[in-house]
Amino acid sequence: MRETDRSGRPIPTSVLSLGVPPLVTAHAHAAPAAHSGGHEEHHHYTTTGLDNRKIAIWAFIGSECMLFASLISTYLIYKGRSLVGPFPHTEWTNPQTGQVFKPILNIPVTSFSTFVLLMSSLAMVLALAAVQNKDNPLPANAGLGDRMLASSKLWLWATCILGAMFLACQAYEFTSFVHEGLTIKTNLFGSTFFTLTGFHGAHVTAGVIWLGTLLAIDYKRGLGPKDALNVDLAALYWHFVDVIWIAIFTLLYLIPD
Amino acid sequence: MATVAASPSYARPAASEKEGFMAWLTTTDHKKIGTLYLHTSLFFFIFGGLEAVLMRWQLMKPNQTIVTADQFNQLFTMHGTTMVFLAIMPLSAAFFNYLIPLQLGARDVAFPRLNAFSYWVYLLGGIFITLPILFWVAPDGGWFAYAPLSGRTYSPAINMDFWVLGIQILGISSLAAAFNFATTIINMRAPGMNLMRMPMFTWMSFVTQFLIILAFPVITIALVFLQFDRFFGTNFYQVSAGADPLLWQHLFWVFGHPEVYILILPAFGLVSEVLPTNSKKPLFGYGVMAYSGILIGFLGFGVWAHHMFSVGMGPVGDTVFSLTTMLIAIPTGVKIFNWIFTMWGGSIRFTAAMKFAIGLIALFTIGGISGITHSSPPSDLQQTDTYYIVAHFHYVLFGGAIMGIFSGIYHYFPKMYGRYMDERLGTWHFWLNFISMNLTFFPMHYSGLLGMPRRIYTYDTAQGWDTFNMLSTIGAFLLMPATLIFIWNFFKSKKGGEPAPANAWDAATLEWSIPSPPPEYNFAKIPVVHSRYPLWDLTHPERTKDVPHTDEGMRHTGEHDVVDMHIETERRTAKELGIPMPSSTIKPFWTALGIVVMFTGLLIMPHNKMAGLVGIFTGAAMLVGFLYAWLTTPLEEHH
Amino acid sequence: MAHDSAHASHEHEHPTWKTYKWVALWLTLITIVEVWAYYIPSFVASAAFVPSLLFMSAVKFVIVVMFYMHLKYDHKLFRALFTGPLIIAVATLLALMMLFRKFAD
Amino acid sequence: MTRKSPPRQLARIAWPAMLLLASAACGGNYPNSTFLPNTEFNRDVTSLWNTMLLWGTVVFVIVEVILIAAIVRYRRRPNSPEPEQVHGNTAMEITWTVLPLFILAIIAVPTVRNIWKYQGEAPADALQVQVIGHQWWWEFRYPQYKITTANELYIQANRAVRFELQTVDVIHSFWIPALGGKRDLVNNRTNILWFTPDSTGEQGFIGSCNEYCGSSHANMRFRAYTVNAANFESWAKHQAANAVYPPPAPVVPAAAAVPTSNIGAATQDPATVTPPAPAAPSTGYEFPREQLGAHLVPGTPLPASLKFNEALLANASAERGLQTYSRSACIGCHKIRGNPSSMGILGPDLTHIASRHTIAAGLFPNDAKHMAYWIKNAVTMKPGAKMQVFGIGEMDAVMKRPMTTQGGLTDEQIADVVAYLRTLK
Ligand code: HEA
Ligand code: HEA
Ligand code: CUA
Ligand SMILES: [Cu+2]
Questions:
Q1: pLDDT tens digits, residue range A50-66?
Q2: Ligand 1 binding pocket, CB closer than 6 Å
Q3: How do the domains of chain A map onto residue ranges?
Q4: What is the residue extent of each domain of chain D?
Q5: Of chain A's two ends, which shows fewer C-beta atoms within 10 Å, N or C?
Q6: CATH code for D293-421?
Q7: What is the pLDDT of residues B55-100, one digit of tens each?
Q8: Residues C93 and C62 placed together within one structural domain of the fold
Q9: Positive or negative CA dihedral for A196, A199, A205, A209?
Q10: How far is residue B396's CA from residue B361's CA, in Å, rounded to a whole number?
């Protein structure tokens, strides 16, 4: 992986800080595409031998740690402080109308979507491995499993679809909450919950679009080892979003007031 | 060394492609972007200064009516916001841009187009947040915009919308720049320049980038909450829904305290370049200087609640934050003493830059000591939100950051423009500035300790504050001619200053080994660095014989244009030399404009939903479209 | 870390399908245990509940970062770029929790 | 660079100027100084401050002396030798790491001690005062005495006072510099501040709001009077009683037993208001006007644009004023115990308005003239003031149109209302 091309210096990834990642990151990968057309890559010297973009994305992920720490802190600080329901883990009766609100969190659905997101990380890591190993010929006796493992398209599709499934679960969750009477304006829980998970969802959306562009390139001209860095950047981002969900799932969903 | 004529003989290749205005609008050259930053932020410094002068005029005597209460409240909000976000941070960014690649021996920053983008976002965001004061509809919540006052309930008008959105725009610029410079410093050092050979300015900038990377996400989230509250009716700071307004305060100061070190560390870096050069001595205790910078940055994340001693945190919180705050005196003190002992035993040349650097040592110490006095909560309860605090932070900001930046401008002007600034005017500027600065801010210690609250547009007679306010105001008035001398000097010297050679001050670091002003590619051949003072290795070998020298750098490269440390005299253009340079492009500008249009759309939303939506979608379309075009265009043209 | 030694391939190269598969399995298993624990009221009520959940989620966090994000294998610079900010982020979060008296009860 | 630089002349003037400044601070009359030894808190803080000032000065002098010595000794001269190259000195660097640590320890010890000392519980017999912040005035309640008043705080000399700080709108901060440290009034929280004014005697003090709270943050002041126990009791008893019009004859024996909660429903027809008996004693202690220091007398000028026919004040009728007041919007915002129609809570309690020395949170003296201007156009008198404009023809900031006879008051009517309010001793 260190052998990756060190050529392109445009950095789409750090523009993620805009808070509108979906639109921005989407086209990160067209640049190398244009590059390789010319096939005149300069090898700029770098101090560490690493690509600038990989350093930038790790710095960006460090920054995102603080972003989500702020969001999660806020959620936890306001936990149990809402004046009116519905509440996440406990029942609430509206004193005016007598209407009863069940605990609003849907643990089975979210457990499922958590599982989906975890599996998408597996698919992502396999996609990266497939891209990196594109040039290694499959052994003659390669079975279906080996051939599957070597397919970057398969795993990119899998990642995208799993990501989209996660988003679908979230969409279902959001709409059903609104249906049950919890909006972003209802109470402190609503505001913090929708904002935190919404931010996370926006990150997932950005990731899905980013992966979509990779997939498009894969169909157009095939992703190979020289694209490994680009896939790696997307993968790091994707796993980070996953890791954040691991924290959110435990802190929001599983630990009651 | 021979004196080189001011206008170097190499042609300006960019000029032939794009002329004048367009050349600036499309540049991706870190030096040009640095110049843009410098001029823009000097403009905002004057603007913020004029706001301050207006405030001081109003406060000259009790019960004056130069401005109204609401105008005054806008003035101090915008003065603080302007000085912090539009003057000092970008003044530092001007130096990041101009100097970091030169000090590292690089041809540009890691992401040149992102760099242009950062500048345009800053400029447009700056205009966005500054324009309203011309119509007296500017933000009026104070530069820390405490909730719930900053929420829709208590600030229903458009004023605070400008602030909430404007600071977010500026945050994008700062973050993009920070990722860029952090990557540049990690990854674009010349062969042989390990971390312990980086010039001190680059070191302090390095720490600053991490402070930005870690502090700005927090203010972004705090602002997103406020924005959601104001625009979408959420409850983050809605006290009637049970919200706790201290949430804003904590989030703000988790950002806000590191922010003050973001403001001071680059200035510290600049004087760390000026002092050794003008003392003919290496920096005293280089390693400790670097580590203390890191330590200041790190501790800076553990002290934020010292801005909140009066909110009733309880004794445990007060104690912890008091003690961590006091600890910061130690690494800072180390810096102060190391600077002094850099001069000690040296051969000091009192250039204007040197005077300002010494001014920083003298004045920052005062501000630091007053900082220590309010790190003690019982004492701070008598000081917080009084003019005593105003005195503290102007001593560190004006006496520290601004002094350091002026020092840097005088010092690096010859590198930027190939001409010296006028030393005599510089000396006048220094003394007038030094004296009137003290005249302005020293009396504030007294008015504060004698009970004068801050952020008051008026005060009553017979409170015992009249003399001190009068003095402060006179000082502020005197700062105007002081600054005017500087401005005059700056523009005059650009045109007709005495020509400066490449190594204008007989300095030790890489940026002085190339012509002044540097050619677009900076280094025709990337130098291999063997020690901390590569240029002194050549010009004054006797000065560097004690520093460790290695040539580890050579081993890793194998690039055709890397050669041993040398004095660069190449005058041909990049094209002639076959050096690939990032091509100029306007796309970062349009992308930045897209962002600002988007935020403007949101601003309009509550007043005209249709127009607002049109703005948001137009902006988003611009953003996506130009970003796509940007990312699909290769960075460099191939020769 | 209890289990990484069991599954990490200690060759100097990149991990392979074999590693990834085990990581995914562990992630799934831990998630199942977590959710299961959530549905045992007596356990939820006990003092061990929150710490054990936090522990499990920390384990998941770490193995994804180490194996899927390759931090275990990659340049040590990246480890510094990630853990530094993470430590500050977690410390800030804990400090805020304390300031808002979240651990008081 | 050896040429004498003219600006150095400036420096010569600067230092004496500094000294002058320092001496000015020692003389002079500084009623709001934070170092006045009026409470134990202030004395402790002063001694803490002195420690810090001492050590701060030591540090300052050390730094500036070495700095100046370096500048003077090592200035470059034509024949300066090439300096010896020193890259650092571990022993020295350890010294200036450790020495500050000692200094900080000297500061830290009394700091921590005082943090804990002043966040402990107040003495049980402390006077309790609830402080409620409003944009931009102060409400003071004395639960032990069933008093509600505004902008003027009576506390007892030599008796601990414990403030419970709350706000109804935004964050404010309560501070009497000469008596003790400030505390913020934070929504959804109650902060506590207490101290004992043990060496003040009978004195008046300035208090202020110190957290920026909007337009008139600067105009959110108050007065605090430390009075002796007997005077306090007299003041408190009087304040607790209802105010009535017309004022009862001076000797009304049953006064002490005035129930404070018998105001009853506010639905009574205002036109038929009759002063309910029993009446309040007409005299209670009031902090003597003559004893107000110069700093306690408001000097805010009247806005030039606001006109009022002051001649009307001379022969205004309190009787008519009562009727006008009770029929105007005033009653929706203000409370006058004893005037059953006046039940509002948005504005300051006016029950004993005439017993206060200032109006509008310390901005203006409480006399007929200023009160008349205030009622005519409070917003012009005090930026952003949340009291409606009443003068006919005056611009109403909320409705964005000039006041009409509909709800507006003529100068005559205002003069009458003032006359009525002036009777509410
Ligand atoms: C450049 C910006 C900058 C810098 C560097 C600092 C540095 C410090 N600041 Fe300052 N501060 C501000 C900008 C800055 N500050 C601003 C803008 C505000 C107000 C914000 C607002 O409310 O609007 C503020 C407010 C502020 C407060 C809150 C006051 C209040 O509102 O009540 C406190 C409280 O502790 C504080 C403390 C300190 C300390 C201890 C340092 C230390 O880092 C100083 C350390 C330096 C020294 C001590 C001098 C050198 C050391 C020696 C010579 C060694 C020996 C010294 C000793 C033993 C003492 N600052
Ligand atoms: C880096 C930051 C910085 C700098 C440099 C300054 C510089 C100055 N500040 Fe600053 N100030 C702050 C940061 C800064 N300030 C902050 C953060 C606050 C808190 C805000 C808040 O409470 O929200 C504050 C608050 C503040 C207050 C308190 C307001 C209040 O609480 O009510 C005052 C009052 O005197 C003041 C005065 C000044 C003055 C006189 C200068 C002078 O030094 C200015 C000198 C500059 C000039 C005089 C400009 C030169 C002008 C010319 C040369 C004219 C040219 C003319 C033409 C081109 C036509 N400032
Ligand atoms: Cu109330 Cu400021
Ligand atoms: Cu601070």
A1: 889 999 999 999 999 99
A2: B 143-144, 260, 263-264, 306-307, 325, 328-329, 332-333, 336, 365, 368-369, 371-372, 374-375, 380, 383-384, 389, 392-393, 396-397, 400-401; D 59, 63, 100, 103-104
A3: 1-42, 52-254
A4: 31-71+93-240, 293-421
A5: C
A6: 1.10.760.10
A7: 999 999 999 999 999 999 999 999 999 999 999 999 999 999 999 9
A8: no
A9: negative
A10: 10
